[in-house]
Specification:
By secondary structure, the chain is of the alpha+beta class. It has helices spanning about 100-110, 125-140, 145-155; strands at about 10-15, 25-35, 35-40, 60, 70, 90-95, 95-100, 120-125. It has 3 helices and 8 strands. The strands form 2 sheets. Strands 7-3-2-1-8 form a 5-stranded antiparallel beta sheet, with helices on both faces. Strand 4 and strand 5 form a beta hairpin. Helix 2 (about 125-140) packs antiparallel against helix 3 (about 145-155). The longest helix has 13 residues, at about 125-140. The two termini are about 25 Å apart.
């Protein structure tokens, strides 16, 4: 299987195991790759706007009391492969930017005979990846050590 856990990639993992023991299909954005570790947004991209936030265009938004979030408008191509979300899609940042070993992520593809258990969906353009990284590093919920590493990578793009 080709290495799908590269910076800027949007990856779909079938039956991703969450910390609470539940599992479901998940989209995962890879922000940075440092050898054996991938820096990822480990929350679900969601079309459910349960916080009733206002977003009309692609990009980062800051809500003073709730969260920093990134919005992808429905039908807007987000990278290579002409991929777009069918519905308005949000990524809310709350303690969900973390490092995960690539071997841990790769287990989803090796433990099944399903060739689509891990699928590369799209690759963000450098400009879009920089915007997403900027949103992550301005979130008060991103740990300081990760902010430093992600800022350095963003500035190198």
């Amino acid at each position: 299987m080709p290495d799908v856990f590269l910076p800027g990639n949007l990856v779909r993992i079938k039956d991703f195991q969450f910390e609470d023991g539940s599992s479901r299909n998940k989209y995962l954005f890879v922000l940075l790759r440092d050898g054996t570790t991938a820096y990822v947004i480990s929350s679900l991209a969601t079309s459910q706007n349960k916080l009733n936030v206002a977003a009309t265009k692609n990009g980062c938004y800051h809500h003073p009391r709730l969260s920093t979030y990134y919005h992808f408008p429905a039908g807007e191509v987000i990278g290579t492969g002409d991929f777009y979300f069918d519905k308005e899609t949000y990524i809310f940042f709350r303690d969900n930017v973390r490092k995960i070993l690539v071997t841990e992520l790769s287990q989803y593809g090796s433990s099944t005979t399903d060739p689509f258990a891990i699928a590369h969906v799209a690759t963000l353009s450098n400009g879009e990846l920089k915007k997403l990284l900027q949103c992550v590093v301005t979130s008060t919920f991103t740990p300081e050590d990760l902010k430093t590493e992600l800022t350095s990578f963003k500035d190198s793009l």
